[in-house]
Design goal:
The chain has one domain. Helices cover 77% and strands 0% of the residues. The chain has helices spanning 7-35, 38-55, 60-70, 74-99, 105-126, 131-159. α1 packs antiparallel against α4 and α2 runs antiparallel to α3. The longest helix has 29 residues, at 7-35.
């Protein structure tokens, strides 16, 4: 009879799936930035923020979105597109490996998510405005790193024939 999944494993799977969704959104955003010109981006942002600006001309998010769209140079647009595409591809490869218990994906995921967290803290240190999102992403990355480490231990123990600790036991899924 299969053993129930542990809460740690369930949290790991949810976190990795969220990373996968984030990676897909980054890929979509990167492709859109490549195909859409700066003028179109400015018009879309103006339309999306129009109601909020009419209610509150100093709305924090709406004004920052408009400023970012207005300052988006062609070089910055290409950099942002490549950045999002690279992040998206890396995350999707890691998600694929992690959800299939591929041993290479665990240390790689820990290193990559750790690098993302360090970069996000660096960005917060040099430009703290709007930093709540960076801090939230960093906390999420640290949680995913800890869950990945725990899952890596479980997978290695299972592959070496050792029974996983009771809190870590779960049925193996077929690949």
């Amino acid at each position: 009879m299969p053993q129930p999944r542990s809460k740690i494993h369930l949290a790991f799977e949810i976190g990795v799936i969220l990373k996968g969704i984030n990676g897909i959104l980054e890929l979509i955003g990167g492709f859109l930035l490549l195909w859409i010109g700066p003028g179109t981006i400015q018009n879309v942002v103006a339309r999306l923020t129009q109601n909020e600006i009419s209610e509150d001309p100093h709305d924090f998010i709406a004004t920052h979105l408009r400023d970012a769209a207005r300052l988006l140079s062609p070089n910055a647009k290409i950099f942002a597109a490549v950045y999002l595409l690279a992040h998206g591809v890396i995350k999707e490869l890691l998600v694929y490996g992690l959800l299939r218990d591929q041993l290479w994906a665990f240390p790689t995921g820990i290193a990559v998510f750790g690098a993302f967290a360090v970069y996000q803290l660096y960005r917060y240190a040099i430009a703290p405005s709007g930093g709540a999102w960076l801090i939230a992403l960093t906390v999420l990355d640290v949680a995913i790193i800890l869950l990945t480490w725990a899952e890596w231990r479980r997978v290695k123990q299972t592959r070496h024939g050792e029974p996983p600790p009771p809190s870590q036991s779960r049925p193996a899924h077929s690949v």
